[in-house]
Write a structure and sequence with these properties.
This protein is an alpha+beta fold and 280 residues long. It is built from 8 helices and 14 strands. The strands form 3 sheets. A 7-stranded mixed β-sheet has the order 3-4-5-6-7-8-9, with helices on both faces. It has a 5-stranded mixed β-sheet with strand order 11-10-12-14-13, with helices on both faces. It catalyses: a myo-inositol phosphate + H2O = myo-inositol + phosphate.
């Protein structure tokens, strides 16, 4: 069992590249061979027609669960598909053990359509603290990584989110209407304001990467599922950005947040988005 933060730091210093290799291999062996090759029997619905799962999701998560658990003895894995099968496994995020949070295919709908806008997300968390993350867009061969206090990188190049251009509208990606309730849609209405341009989000992981790269000014999301947010929140944070909930506090990966919340290129932009959302 990992006993203290120093040991986690030592693990990351020695094995960050091993985690990256595991993510790449999961994509190479379980995801990409099925890209644009999916048979009908390899695609299922979960909660509805927009909530899809494929054999690639399941098999990639199984692969990562095995490899990541072996890399860090005493750790546990909380994966989207395992939680769907047994919701109680989500409670491990609240425990003392280091937790790998895994979304094997973030943007499954795009993956099923044969579009490149999907990625694999892995984050290492302990006691609710985001420690490291990996965001791999396999179809685009882009790997983004972040370690707490160590910065964010895309294919080895440092990421800096910068600040929005005050001369143009703020661009914000919001929860997709296909995945939101009427109440959640109403909670986002404050963003339909002068000086703001909104669009529905695609893969949450890739939207966070866009914020970290300074290509998107902010996100506004209305759900808490840790596998969608953990990797990207650390990426944005380490690139110089910020995240806030309706109460003005940072988003807690352990849950209980006042929603919706934002991740933005800088603190001022995060505060501006939250002011608009409070007016909804």
């Amino acid at each position: 069992m990992i006993e203290d933060t120093e040991t986690i730091d030592e693990f990351l210093a020695q094995h960050t590249a091993d985690v990256e290799e595991a993510v790449r291999r999961a994509a190479a062996t379980e995801i990409m061979p099925r890209f644009r090759q999916l048979a009908a029997h390899e695609v299922d619905q979960k909660s509805g027609p927009h909530d899809l799962v494929t054999d690639a999701d399941r098999d990639a998560e199984r692969y990562l669960t095995k490899v990541l658990g072996a890399l860090l003895p005493g750790s546990v894995v909380v994966g989207e598909e395992a939680v769907h099968a047994d919701p109680e496994t989500y409670e491990a995020i609240q425990g003392d053990a280091p937790v790998w949070i895994v979304d094997p295919v973030d943007g499954t709908r795009q993956f099923v359509r044969g579009e490149t806008g999907f990625c694999t997300l892995v984050a290492l968390v302990r006691h609710g603290e985001l420690l490291a993350s990996w965001t791999y867009a396999a179809a685009r061969d882009q790997m983004a990584t972040a370690v707490k206090g160590g910065g964010a990188f895309l294919d080895g190049a440092r990421l800096r989110s910068g600040v929005p251009d005050p001369a143009r509208d703020l661009e914000v990606a919001t929860s997709h209407p296909d995945y939101t309730t009427d109440a959640q849609k109403r909670a986002l209405l404050g963003l339909w304001a002068d000086g703001v341009r909104t669009r529905p989000c695609g893969s949450a992981g890739l939207e966070y990467l866009a914020v970290a790269r300074g290509e998107l000014d902010a996100t506004a999301f209305s759900w808490e599922a840790a596998w969608d947010h953990a990797a990207g929140l650390l990426l944005v944070q380490e690139a110089g950005g910020a995240h806030l909930t309706l109460t003005g506090e940072p988003f807690r990966i352990t849950g209980g947040n006042a929603l919706p919340f934002t991740a933005a290129r800088d603190t001022a932009t995060a505060q501006r988005v939250m002011e608009l959302l409070r007016a909804s």
